[in-house]
Amino acid sequence: MPDKPSTFRGNKSTLPSKPCTVCGRPMTWRRRWAKTWEDVKYCSDACRRAKGAA
Ligand SMILES: [Zn+2]
Question: Where are the domains of the chain?
Fold first, then answer.
């Protein structure tokens, strides 16, 4: 019966995330996206291609 902490302080796992515009799966921030996070729309090249094909 662990006490669920209601305070949220300095958790290092608070990386931003957003859903892939194609498959909807949540994408968690990655270092490689550090400079392009705003523009990242697809979780993978497959989704990027799927979007382009559709
Ligand atoms: Zn995707």
Answer: 17-53
